[in-house]
Amino acid sequence: MKFGKYFEKELASSDVPKEWAENAIQYKALKKRIKRFAEELMVLGLSKETMGILLSASEVTNATINTSDTKVIDISMENDNNNGDKGDNEKEDEEEEDGPVSLQSLEEKIQDISLEGTDLEDKEPILYNLKFQIQVLEDDAVQEQENHPIANYLLVEDQQYVKPKLIVVLNNDNDEYSKEIRQKIIKYIEHTRKTDKIVEVKEDQIKLQNIEKLKNLQRVRITIDLHEDDEFFQTIFTELTNLQQLKIEHEQKMTKEIETISDTIGSLSSPSKWRTDLDSWREIFEIYLENRIFYVTDDIHGERKFEDSSKRLQQFEKEINSTDLVQGFKHKKSKVAYEAFYQLNVDLLQAMKFHHLNKLAVTKILKKFDKQTALAVRTQIPDIMSQKPFINESFINTLYGAISEKLVSVIPQIEDYDCPICFTIAYRPIRLKCSHVFCVQCLVNLQRQKKDECPVCRSPAVMEATSDNLDIELQDYMKTYFPKQVKEKQKERMKTIEAETYYLAYRKAKYSGEGCCIQ
Amino acid sequence: MAALSKRIIRETERLVSDPVPGITAMPHEDNLRYFDVTIEGADQSPYEGGLFKLELFLPEDYPMVAPKVRFLTKIYHPNIDRLGRICLDTLKKNWTPAIQIRTLLLSIQSLLTSPNPDDPLANDVAECWKKDEAGAIQTAKEWTAKYAKKE
Ligand SMILES: [Zn+2]
Ligand SMILES: [Zn+2]
């Protein structure tokens, strides 16, 4: 299935709420833009194939271009401003050598050819409002090495969006590509001049001057502000900003929801009340944590991550339904809270899918852009994206963390109260002076073996412990929150004591004379 | 034999479901106190690329006493002798019942990265290691290639 179809289908599915789908990346519209942009380039003689050759040449000679920049003499500047000597110009250019700054300041100096275009609906891309900046280059040395014209496509960041600029350097000899592009651009400018009635006379002259430069077959650098790509990037960044906003709203809403649910569950599970759902909630959360629904592993991303989490959520639900935990709630409100809790996870899953789909759409559309124009924007985008709003799925992890921590910490987990030696509840809890806690049975074991070091931190604290080290507060807490485990542990303890008593009695019988045998 | 403690059951479950990278530990079906262990030699150590087999046994008094661990794969290391016995503080005087099987195996794994010839078990190996470290490392690499090949 083509991605466009797939994207549409997925957005329409029940996994994506309608109000979100409206904010999704407009994949189809962007695809159309790319098509029109490719046409726009064609008009200037910059077909995908030509572009590929121009760009690959520029990769090799990028360094050369940069050094030659310092020797650029801008004719339009010389004409307008004769008081600056050449040396100064050179210096200025040197300072502004690379990056968007130089492009912007150049724009101020160099006269534009600016033509009013018709609107988008017009099928003739030739009438768009394109801007050309034309500079004559006076560096024969570089040119001699070059058989091809060269091109660079830059995405220059501005405050909100990204401004694309195409820079083409044409040779002054008769190489085939330079010739064709030159002709096409001249044709374009002349054509728009004819069709456009509003242009002032003064501007017209400048345009003529520029055309002359092109016609004179000088080596020129042309900076072209194209129309469709501008629209393309503006659209995509507006959509990304909207998605970012939507994401923030999700996040706020869900954070609030998590708080509400956790408060409710906390009050329904109060151990001091006679009717409490403490045990049921604890078991539910144990199952929840075991299923690690949104747990992140480094090797699982995107689609698979969604499928993975989706399966785990189903598994969680299945496990819950196989018990009577929800049916057995003592409070009706607990059932409602459970449904809200489950829905929260469904919402999170949906958000994950939605943002992933959009991320995929952006990736695909940029790939398409590169494929149809040969302009390698995807290598430039990541740097830009890191500073602009982009679809970031990390908020899923943040929210999952919030659920695990906040919601689940309402119910104390038994693991936190286990003895580090026997892995059962540390009842009765003996707190050593180093503050580590062990169950009395394990501690007595250590003392019998004369092991003075605390098993956790090795400080000498075991032998001096007495019944004074019993942590009564903790003991009460355990009795309140983990009555089942405490009872089990007490039973275990009784068994051990019985066994030990029996053993001692047996020894007594064996070694203290035959008396008992006679009896 | 005493019933398996909750501790051993929980440790085993976790070792299997959430293994330590580079380490596997599987209990025998007929004796749940006996584990087959493998440790991968760490990158940039002489044991890189090797897979070392060990046996681990939990005595009845575990965790009050340390597990018994032994290399089954031949290994050239100053703290491991010809019989595969390991000289590691954690296994002897530094054992505490709060140490788990996974922590112990991690210590053994890191012993492979940082051999300690000043506290030797295999005296001859330790001597070589001190006299000619480069040569000893070379031998360790050769032994790894020869005896600890991954299948
Ligand atoms: Zn204990
Ligand atoms: Zn301690």
Automatic annotation (TrEMBL), chain A:
SUPFAM superfamilies: RING/U-box
Source organism, top-level taxon: Eukaryota
InterPro entries listed in its UniProt record: SPX_dom, Znf_RING, Znf_RING/FYVE/PHD, Znf_RING_CS
Protein name per the record: Uncharacterized protein
Coiled-coil region list: none
GO molecular function: zinc ion binding
Chain residue ranges for the region called Disordered: 74-102
Ranges of residues in domain SPX: 1-383
Annotated Acidic residues bias: 90-99
Keyword terms: Metal-binding, Zinc, Zinc-finger
Stretches assigned to the RING-type domain: 419-458
Keyword tRNA processing: no
Signal sequence, start to end: none
From TrEMBL, chain B:
CDD domains noted in UniProt: UBCc_UBE2N (cd23813)
Main enzyme class: transferase
Source taxonomy: Eukaryota, Fungi, Dikarya, Ascomycota, Saccharomycotina
Family the entry assigns: Belongs to the ubiquitin-conjugating enzyme family.
Name the UniProt record assigns to this protein: E2 ubiquitin-conjugating enzyme
UniProt-annotated catalytic positions: 87
Keywords: ATP-binding, Nucleotide-binding, Transferase, Ubl conjugation pathway
Keyword hit for Transferase: yes
Keyword Transferase recorded: yes
GO molecular function term, any single one: ATP binding
Cross-referenced PANTHER family: UBIQUITIN-CONJUGATING ENZYME E2 (PTHR24068)
Residue ranges of every copy of the UBC core domain listed in the record: 3-149
EC number: 2.3.2.23
